[in-house]
Every structure is written in C-alpha cells, then in structure tokens.
Amino acid sequence: MRQTKFFTKTQKEAPADEQAKNAQLLIRAGYIHKEMAGAYQLLPLGLIVIQKIKQIVREEMTVLGTNELLATNLQRKELWERTARWDDKVVDVWFKSELKAGGEVGLAWSHEEPIADMMKNHISSYKDLPTAVYQFQNKLRNELRAKSGIMRGREFIMKDAYSFSATEEQHEAFYEASKVAYSKCFERLGIGDDTYVTFAAGGAFTEFSHEFQTVCESGEDVTYLCKEKGIAINEEVLKKADLEELGVTRDELVATKTAEVGNIFNFGRQKAEEVGLFFKDKECERVPVWMGSYGIGITRLMGVIVEKFADDKGIVWPESVAPYKVHLVGLNLEDDEIRDWVDGIYSALTKRGVSVLFDDRDARPGEKFADSDLIGLPYRIVASRKGKESGAFEVVTRATGEVRSLTEEEVLADFVK
Ligand code: ATP
Ligand code: MG
C-alpha cells in the first residue's frame, strides 16, 4: 500500500479529553477516530488490526468446533423479562429504545437470552447436542465511566460464543476445551506470556467462572497472582474463597494490575430452564440444556496490546496483528533513479506476499521516521540516496531498535517466507 494513496494521516495531538494512552496513540497514529466518549470509529488501519485479531480468534473457534453466526442488535423486552434481566436495576448498562409502532426494544449488551431462545428451533433431542455457536458483534453498553479509551467502550466488538450440551460431561469437556482455545488465541496475539486464567465469582452452577486477565498497568482490574504455581484469583474471589482449596496461600499472591480480555461462564442448566430451552434425553425425558457463554473483548484487545508494548515513540505491534509487516520509508524520492530503486524493492516484496506500507510521500525524513515510529509496524526498511550508493537498505526492528544493513537479495531472503 502506497501511503499517498492510503486514507491515513497522523496527528500531533490527541483530543484534549482523551486520557487513555491506548486511544491517544491509536488516534494520533491514524487507527481510530473518537466520535464521543466511549465510541470510536475504526479507520482503515485500525480495521485491518481488528480483522487480524478476529481472524486469529475465528481460527481457534473453528478448531474448538463452533459455528459462526450473526445475531441482531435489536432485542425483545419480553425475552429478557423472562430471565429477570430487563430491569435497569438488575442490568445497569442497558441502552433501550421505543419503537414507533409501539413497544420497547433493547440494544444488545449481551446475546445470551436471544441466542438461547433461538436455539429452540435447532435443539429438540440429545442427538442435536453438543453444539456451539459464536459471533463477532457490536455490543452496546451504557457504561457509567468510559475513561480507558477503547479498553472500555460504550460500543465495542466482542466475540461471544455459546455452548449447548446434553450432559454435565459434555458441558465440562467444552468448557475446558474453550480454556485451551482461549489460551491459544492470547498466545498468538502476543500476550500469552502474562495472560492468566483467573478464578472469578459467578457461575450459576459452579462456584467459579473464569476470567482471562492480562498484566497491564492501565487495566481496570487487580488480580492476585502466584506466577510460580500459575494461579490467579480476582478480587471478589480473594475475599470469599477458601484459598487452601485453590492450592495457594495469601502471601504467595501478588496484587497485580490487569485487564480482562476474556471471560467464560458456566450457566449449568439454569439459563435454559428460564428461557425454556429443553430437549428429550436418552430416556425420553424433557430436560433443560447445559449452557455456557464465552466472551473475548476484540476491541479491548487492540487497546491492551497497544498499552502493553508501546514505547515513548509510539505503538509497537506484535507481528501477528500488525496492519502491515514492513514500513518501507523512501527518502530522496524526487530523484527518479532513487524512486525506481525503491519502487523495485516495493514491488519485489509485495509480489512475494510481504505486506508493505510504502511511505512514498513528499515529506522530510524526520517526519517520516517519527510517523513510522508512531504507527509501529514490526520492521522499517529505509531506502535513501546513501543506501543506493552503497547498495544497501537499512532495516530496523521496531521492538528492539536493532539496525541491519541488507542488500535487496538479503532483504528478500529475510522477509519472504
Ligand atoms: P468488565 O468486567 O471489564 O466490565 P464484563 O465482565 O462486563 O467486563 P463480559 O460481559 O464478560 O464483560 O464481556 C466479555 C468480554 O468483553 C470482557 O472480558 C471484555 O474483554 C470485553 N468487554 C466488556 N465490556 C467492555 C467494554 N465496555 N468495552 C470493551 N470491551 C469490553
Ligand atoms: Mg467479566
């Protein structure tokens, strides 16, 4: 992609009311636009990152054996009343609206109820089970505070999955497999080393639900970690649970700032019972389905990744989610000979499948370097008059600052896999 043809622009300043580092950097680097507190447009660069995050999650959801669908954002009042969750006192993040034809609708903050209800058309016998579906959907939540940038939006993208099982064993097996799938996602997203499966309160059937908490200075949560044993406990559980049962003592746990990137939840049979999702088991008895729900914060992840890896010059993307792998920075392009040489490496790389953002703008080197640092692609290849004379490109690794001088042949050998 040539930058002169690309809809992107960096900015010196983020909006004055933006306090969060993730949003400040993403706005300045041209990934997102702040529409209002808690609502951000995804610009072309930001959309590529989100699509990469989604694709990793999608692949792991496929391995887990779930099917993608897309539910509506408009939801029925009657359905949420059935589970006693329409009331604002019970769910304090509802956005609701009036239909012109009369009656109220809810705007999706979650999809547990509608999807469970929809599954009545698909589940009638134990032979239909187990099954699971998932989606990437915009959630709307009337969050009281939206000060963490895209880490807490009033509108945000979530991956939510729902499992339906005939027996406790089936249900447990899926729940455990989802933990493995989630860990794989976070590993591929570059945050596997310090993302922990965390005991959390809740779960209609079990004592605990599980959060996936990743160490992050600007996260809104505090998690109690014992890294040696790999045990993590959230604040609520710390107050209530018997730590001995969890295999850890209080002084082994270190309070750590974290961000919740995922959450898996066990409904047992309660949700299905409330919604009215029953099936005929092997004995021909009519019983409720075992249900679980599994969320990952897609847009929050983009913010968390920015917060975790950024340095004082800007964003530093892990390769798996970077919008492009290489930032080709062309200097002295007013000279036709140099322009041809830089065009040459650009087409050689792109032809071989390397994704390249080519800074072909007419701008000063200092400005180009500063923008390139801010945008944060994994590798920068600098092509200048000096380089052409010595036949070498300067290759800089964004994360480490390592600088190498490589010929075109060496660049291709290094980047084309
Ligand atoms: P939190 O405790 O952070 O408010 P939650 O427990 O309400 O989150 P869930 O309903 O479990 O969140 O949603 C699943 C995932 O969606 C969360 O783990 C988080 O990563 C993400 N998420 C939740 N709320 C928001 C939000 N307002 N903005 C962005 N992502 C969110
Ligand atoms: Mg949660």
Summary?
This protein starts with 20 loop residues before the first helix and ends with a helix. Helices cover 31% and strands 29% of the residues.
Task: Report what the structure shows.
- The chain is α+β, with helices and mostly antiparallel strands and 417 residues long.
- It folds into 2 domains: 31-309, BirA Bifunctional Protein, domain 2, CATH 3.30.930; 326-415, Anticodon-binding domain (Rossmann fold).
- It contains 13 helices and 21 strands.
- Strands 9-10-13-11-12 form a 5-stranded mixed barrel.
- The model has no long low-confidence stretch (mean pLDDT 96).
- Magnesium ion binds at residues 211, 260, 263.
Topology:
Layout: H1 21-28, E1 32-36, E2 39-42, H2 44-63, E3 67-68, E4 74-76, H3 77-82, E5 95-98, E6 104-107, H4 112-118, E7 131-140, E8 155-165, H5 168-188, E9 195-201, E10 208-215, E11 221-226, E12 231-234, H6 235-240, H7 243-246, E13 254-268, H8 270-275, E14 278-280, E15 286-288, E16 290-297, H9 298-309, E17 326-330, H10 336-351, E18 356-359, H11 365-375, E19 379-383, H12 385-390, E20 393-397, E21 403-406, H13 408-415
Parallel strand pairs: 3-7, 9-12, 17-18, 17-19
Antiparallel strand pairs: 1-2, 4-6, 5-6, 7-8, 8-16, 9-10, 10-13, 11-12, 11-13, 13-16, 14-15, 19-20, 20-21
Helix pairs in contact: 1-9, 2-5, 2-9
The site of magnesium ion has 3 residues, from strand 13.
